[in-house]
Amino acid sequence: MTSSSDVLRSMFEHHLWATETLIVHLDRLPAEQLDASVPGTYGSMIDTLTHMIDADTRYLLRLRDPTPPPADDRVGIALAQLRSELPEHRRRWDEALTDLEAQTLNASILGRDDYPDTDPAESMLLIQAIHHGNDHRTQICSTLGALELPVPEIDGWDFWANRHRT
Fold it and tell me: DSSP secondary-structure letter at 140?
Protein backbone atom coordinates (compact mmCIF):
# COMPACT_ATOMS: atom_id res chain seq x y z
CA MET A 1 0.00 0.00 0.00
CA THR A 2 1.29 3.45 -0.92
CA SER A 3 1.53 5.96 1.93
CA SER A 4 1.30 9.73 1.64
CA SER A 5 4.98 9.79 2.56
CA ASP A 6 5.76 7.52 -0.42
CA VAL A 7 3.90 9.92 -2.72
CA LEU A 8 5.75 12.96 -1.39
CA ARG A 9 9.10 11.19 -1.75
CA SER A 10 8.22 10.25 -5.34
CA MET A 11 7.43 13.88 -6.09
CA PHE A 12 10.88 14.95 -4.89
CA GLU A 13 12.54 12.04 -6.70
CA HIS A 14 10.85 13.26 -9.89
CA HIS A 15 11.88 16.84 -9.12
CA LEU A 16 15.55 15.86 -8.91
CA TRP A 17 15.42 13.34 -11.77
CA ALA A 18 13.77 15.85 -14.10
CA THR A 19 16.34 18.51 -13.26
CA GLU A 20 19.25 16.12 -13.81
CA THR A 21 17.71 14.80 -17.05
CA LEU A 22 17.32 18.38 -18.26
CA ILE A 23 20.94 19.17 -17.41
CA VAL A 24 22.16 16.10 -19.32
CA HIS A 25 20.02 17.18 -22.28
CA LEU A 26 21.30 20.76 -22.20
CA ASP A 27 24.89 19.54 -21.95
CA ARG A 28 24.53 18.16 -25.51
CA LEU A 29 23.90 21.65 -26.88
CA PRO A 30 26.58 24.09 -27.97
CA ALA A 31 27.42 26.36 -25.02
CA GLU A 32 26.19 29.50 -26.80
CA GLN A 33 22.67 28.04 -27.08
CA LEU A 34 22.43 27.93 -23.28
CA ASP A 35 22.28 31.72 -23.34
CA ALA A 36 19.12 31.67 -25.45
CA SER A 37 15.84 32.90 -24.01
CA VAL A 38 12.33 33.60 -25.27
CA PRO A 39 9.81 36.19 -24.09
CA GLY A 40 7.70 35.11 -21.14
CA THR A 41 10.41 33.05 -19.45
CA TYR A 42 12.71 33.82 -16.53
CA GLY A 43 15.71 34.43 -18.78
CA SER A 44 18.34 32.42 -20.58
CA MET A 45 18.21 28.67 -20.18
CA ILE A 46 21.41 28.61 -18.09
CA ASP A 47 20.26 31.50 -15.90
CA THR A 48 16.89 29.83 -15.37
CA LEU A 49 18.50 26.52 -14.44
CA THR A 50 20.93 28.23 -12.06
CA HIS A 51 18.06 30.19 -10.47
CA MET A 52 16.06 27.00 -10.01
CA ILE A 53 18.93 25.16 -8.30
CA ASP A 54 19.84 28.19 -6.18
CA ALA A 55 16.19 28.50 -5.10
CA ASP A 56 16.17 24.84 -4.05
CA THR A 57 19.23 25.55 -1.92
CA ARG A 58 17.31 28.41 -0.29
CA TYR A 59 14.19 26.25 0.31
CA LEU A 60 16.35 23.59 1.96
CA LEU A 61 17.93 26.25 4.14
CA ARG A 62 14.55 27.78 5.04
CA LEU A 63 13.32 24.38 6.23
CA ARG A 64 15.93 24.70 9.01
CA ASP A 65 16.40 28.45 9.50
CA PRO A 66 13.53 30.98 9.72
CA THR A 67 15.82 33.92 8.89
CA PRO A 68 18.39 32.79 6.32
CA PRO A 69 20.74 35.42 4.97
CA PRO A 70 19.62 37.08 1.73
CA ALA A 71 21.03 35.34 -1.30
CA ASP A 72 21.34 36.28 -4.92
CA ASP A 73 21.39 33.82 -7.78
CA ARG A 74 24.82 33.00 -9.09
CA VAL A 75 25.84 33.78 -12.65
CA GLY A 76 28.24 32.05 -15.01
CA ILE A 77 27.87 28.62 -13.43
CA ALA A 78 28.71 25.67 -15.68
CA LEU A 79 26.27 22.81 -16.22
CA ALA A 80 28.77 20.36 -14.73
CA GLN A 81 28.87 22.40 -11.52
CA LEU A 82 25.08 22.55 -11.30
CA ARG A 83 24.82 18.81 -11.88
CA SER A 84 27.46 18.13 -9.21
CA GLU A 85 25.24 19.88 -6.64
CA LEU A 86 22.29 17.55 -7.16
CA PRO A 87 23.53 14.65 -4.98
CA GLU A 88 23.76 17.02 -2.02
CA HIS A 89 20.28 18.34 -2.78
CA ARG A 90 19.04 14.76 -2.98
CA ARG A 91 20.59 13.97 0.41
CA ARG A 92 19.18 17.11 2.02
CA TRP A 93 15.66 16.61 0.58
CA ASP A 94 15.73 13.00 1.82
CA GLU A 95 16.81 14.19 5.26
CA ALA A 96 14.07 16.83 5.35
CA LEU A 97 11.40 14.30 4.32
CA THR A 98 12.66 11.83 6.92
CA ASP A 99 12.38 14.55 9.57
CA LEU A 100 8.91 15.43 8.30
CA GLU A 101 7.85 11.78 8.65
CA ALA A 102 9.26 11.72 12.19
CA GLN A 103 7.42 14.98 12.92
CA THR A 104 10.71 16.64 13.84
CA LEU A 105 10.82 19.12 10.95
CA ASN A 106 9.65 22.46 12.30
CA ALA A 107 10.04 25.15 9.66
CA SER A 108 8.89 28.70 10.12
CA ILE A 109 9.43 31.87 8.17
CA LEU A 110 9.70 35.22 9.87
CA GLY A 111 7.77 37.77 7.87
CA ARG A 112 9.11 40.75 6.00
CA ASP A 113 7.40 43.71 4.42
CA ASP A 114 6.30 41.58 1.46
CA TYR A 115 5.46 38.31 3.25
CA PRO A 116 3.71 37.38 6.52
CA ASP A 117 5.07 35.21 9.31
CA THR A 118 4.43 31.57 8.39
CA ASP A 119 4.47 28.92 11.09
CA PRO A 120 4.33 26.07 10.39
CA ALA A 121 5.96 26.54 6.97
CA GLU A 122 6.84 22.97 5.95
CA SER A 123 3.89 22.48 3.59
CA MET A 124 4.33 25.87 1.94
CA LEU A 125 8.05 25.34 1.34
CA LEU A 126 7.57 21.82 -0.06
CA ILE A 127 4.76 22.95 -2.36
CA GLN A 128 6.84 25.91 -3.55
CA ALA A 129 9.90 23.75 -4.27
CA ILE A 130 7.93 21.36 -6.47
CA HIS A 131 5.98 24.12 -8.23
CA HIS A 132 9.05 26.29 -8.78
CA GLY A 133 11.03 23.43 -10.29
CA ASN A 134 8.20 22.42 -12.63
CA ASP A 135 7.62 26.02 -13.67
CA HIS A 136 11.22 26.70 -14.61
CA ARG A 137 11.86 23.34 -16.25
CA THR A 138 8.82 24.07 -18.41
CA GLN A 139 10.23 27.49 -19.30
CA ILE A 140 13.52 25.90 -20.39
CA CYS A 141 11.66 23.29 -22.45
CA SER A 142 9.52 26.04 -24.01
CA THR A 143 12.69 27.87 -24.99
CA LEU A 144 14.09 24.71 -26.56
CA GLY A 145 10.86 24.17 -28.48
CA ALA A 146 10.65 27.78 -29.64
CA LEU A 147 14.19 27.46 -30.99
CA GLU A 148 13.16 24.23 -32.75
CA LEU A 149 15.63 22.23 -30.65
CA PRO A 150 14.88 18.78 -29.21
CA VAL A 151 12.95 18.84 -25.93
CA PRO A 152 13.62 16.19 -23.26
CA GLU A 153 10.83 14.00 -21.93
CA ILE A 154 10.72 14.78 -18.22
CA ASP A 155 7.09 14.40 -17.20
CA GLY A 156 5.72 12.00 -14.59
CA TRP A 157 5.07 9.25 -17.14
CA ASP A 158 8.67 9.32 -18.34
CA PHE A 159 10.01 9.44 -14.78
CA TRP A 160 7.93 6.42 -13.79
CA ALA A 161 8.83 4.44 -16.89
CA ASN A 162 12.51 5.26 -16.39
CA ARG A 163 12.40 4.14 -12.75
CA HIS A 164 10.48 0.93 -13.39
CA ARG A 165 12.11 -0.49 -16.54
CA THR A 166 13.08 -4.08 -16.13
Answer: H
Task: Name the CATH superfamily for 11-163.
Answer: dinb family like domain (1.20.120.450)
In order along its 166 residues, the chain shows pLDDT tens digits of 999 999 999 999 999 999 999 999 999 999 999 999 999 999 999 999 999 999 999 999 999 998 888 888 999 999 999 999 999 999 999 999 999 999 999 999 888 888 888 899 999 999 999 999 999 999 999 999 999 999 999 999 999 999 887 6
First to last CA, the chain: 21
Domains of the chain by residue range: 11-163
CA 145 from chain center: how many Å?
Answer: 21
